[in-house]
Design goal:
Length: 330
């Protein structure tokens, strides 16, 4: 399925009221195409053109007029009160990884969206972009940002973003699955240290825009599951589309049933943790040039080896029992 078709599925052209956050030069629900979209960005159209103007391959004509400027704080604070609860969807492509407090964002979405509405997030897959050398973010880190009422990215996330930016020789910021290449670190350790060392995550006038969060499909699913279970969030992933390059797309809706507690929840969490391990195994194979076929063959061999060992143990037990039965009694 086409990326934008998936994002816009079940929304009606010209009728569904949509908030699109940060579309800049690549809007999904373009006003020019007839979508009833309110565009939200951190600056106006002229500011976006100035920001991206030196990148020749970008279509600056695609940048539409910004309706609402949002530079921080609750999303609902920059909208008229009467618009709360009136929107059918929030679309945000490559935005959630930049938001300092994702829990606050999901709470704002709850205020702005009406019944049966949805959030659609296009999220960079850390395995397929310059975040590939960074670990995935955890639920605990997301909760900590919310508890601390953080409005700036943590010093550690700025350090990681600068120090572990990893790319292929072409310097491309993203790539397709299974692409094998010799990775290189974009930044030299001493050359960027001074600027990172000077960053103060308590100085509210010193915002630095980085990927504050890093996700894989399973790690993001685990975070959303645990946030819902702990009542930090009223949104649940109902659909996900993993693309072969750069990103995955998650559709979130308000839950229609409560999460099961106890063993079912633990099993679901463990299943996502295992899936996360598998994702990292896939990434290691791609980055180290190990074919998936050889990995699957080793896994199959290991399975046969375990079965064989089990049969050997059974034979040993049976042989022992027969020996004891046939031994002369004294």
């Amino acid at each position: 399925m086409d990326r934008n078709q998936f994002i816009l599925k079940d929304l009606v052209l010209g009728k569904s009221d949509i908030i699109e956050i940060g579309p800049s030069f690549a809007p999904v629900a373009s006003k020019r195409a007839g979508w009833a979209t309110t565009i939200v960005d951190h600056t106006d159209r002229s500011g976006l053109i100035e920001k991206y103007g030196n990148t020749a391959e970008l279509n600056l004509d695609a940048i539409e007029e910004v309706d609402v400027i949002w530079a921080g704080g609750p999303l609902e604070s920059v909208f008229p009160t009467e618009k709360r609860g009136s929107y059918a969807a929030i679309i945000a492509s490559h935005v959630i990884e930049h938001i300092v407090d994702p829990i606050a964002f999901f709470k704002s979405a709850d205020v702005m969206l009406g019944d049966d509405a949805r959030i659609v997030l296009a999220v960079p897959d850390l395995r397929l972009c310059f975040d590939c050398s960074r670990p995935f973010s955890t639920t605990g880190q997301v909760i900590a940002a919310h508890r601390e009422k953080r409005i700036l990215h943590s010093w550690s996330s700025v350090f990681d973003a600068g120090m572990y930016d990893t790319r292929p020789p072409s310097n491309a910021p993203s790539w397709q699955k299974k692409l094998q290449f010799r990775p290189r670190l974009l930044n030299d350790l001493p050359s960027v240290w001074d600027s990172i060392d000077a960053y103060d995550d308590k100085n509210h006038d010193h915002y630095v825009d980085v990927h504050g969060w890093t996700f894989t499909p399973a790690s993001f699913s685990l975070i959303m599951l645990e946030l819902e279970a702990l009542k930090f969030c009223n949104w649940r992933i109902t659909n996900m589309f993993e693309r072969d390059e750069l990103e995955f797309i998650a559709v979130l809706e308000r839950p229609k049933k409560p999460l099961p507690n106890g063993l079912p929840l633990s099993e679901r969490r463990l299943s996502l943790i295992k899936q996360r391990w598998y994702e990292l195994q896939q990434q290691a194979n791609w980055m180290l040039g190990v074919s998936s076929e050889s990995t699957e063959a080793r896994a199959e061999f290991s399975g046969h080896e375990a079965d064989l060992q089990s049969e050997i143990e059974k034979l040993k037990t049976t042989t022992k029992s027969l020996t004891m039965m046939s031994s002369p009694k004294i």
